Structures are given as structure tokens and as C-alpha cells.
Amino acid sequence: MLAEDSVLLREGLIRLLGEAGTEVVAAVADGPSLVRAVVEHRPDVAVVDVRMPPTHTDEGLRAAVEARRAVPETAVLVLSQYVEVAYADELLADGAGGVGYLLKDRVAQVDQFLTALDDVVAGGTVLDPQVVA
Q1: Cα–Cα distance list, 8 to 2, 11, 86, 94, 96 (Å)
Q2: Regarding the domain delimited by 2-127, which CATH topology (the fold level of the hierarchy) does it fall under?
Q3: What residues does the Response regulatory domain cover (predicted)?
Q4: CB under 8 Å to 25, separation ≥6 — which residues?
């Protein structure tokens, strides 16, 4: 499933994932909708934008953490335009795996994005090299 407030990026990701053979069961534009969709659909993975309405600070990340508490088996791949080490730390805090943090620029590198997605679905941890540098 996808949680991205930019309609262009959201629709582009739906198309990209569909072409890669991945079914997108829900696509939402805000944090509360993300949590509801994860509980309802129980997806293998949620791809989540960190900054979402209404304040565009960390609503997506907070919703992803809440969704993982509700449905722990859901992998989460967070996308951000900015290197925010604190966001990556919060996402990784439970140590459970099945999480990733990538800069949105990586989506343009389709193979790298899809590999990261596969890795988090398999229970791995993926961190953008710029985040850990």
C-alpha cells in the first residue's frame, strides 16, 4: 500500500509497482488513512512519505510507527526528500526488521527502489546510504 500526499508521485508509484508485478491494495494521502488502510488490508508492505498533511513534518512517520504497532507483520519503507537521521532512528527503534528509509531520489533508480522494497518485505532493514553516512 502507499501513503503519499503528492498525487503525481502517488500515481507514479502505483504505476511503477503495478508494472513490477506488485498489487497496490490501497493508496492514501494522510497518516490516519494509512493506519486505517493497514488495519483493513494487512498489506505485506506500506510505502510511506515522512511528511504528510496537515503540518508536513513527520505525520507519515508517526502513522507508520502506529500502523506497525497495530499490524506488526507489515513491513514499512519510508520515503523522504530530506536526510533526517532522527526519523530513521525512530523507525528502527523496535529492532524488529522489515523497515527501510530511502530518499525519494532513489525511486528514480527503479531497480534500487524495488530491491529495497523486496528487502524490507523479506524482513530486512534498508537505510539510504546518505542517512548512514
Answers
A1: 13, 5, 27, 32, 32
A2: Rossmann fold (3.40.50)
A3: 1-119
A4: 1, 37, 41, 43
> pTM for the whole thing?
0.91
Locate cell 526528500: which residue? 81
For the chain, give the number of residues. 133
Grid coordinates belonging to 43: 498489506
Look at residue 74 and give its three-state secondary structure. Answer: coil
Report the C-alpha gap between 34 and 3 in whole angstroms: 6
Share of the chain above pLDDT 70, in %: 89
Given this model, what pLDDT does residue 2 score? Answer: 97
CA distance 109 to 92: 24
| CA 26/CA 28 separation, integer angstroms | 7
Report the phi/psi class of residue 11: left, alpha or beta, with left for phi > 0 and alpha for psi in -120 to 50. alpha
What cell does 45 get?
508492505
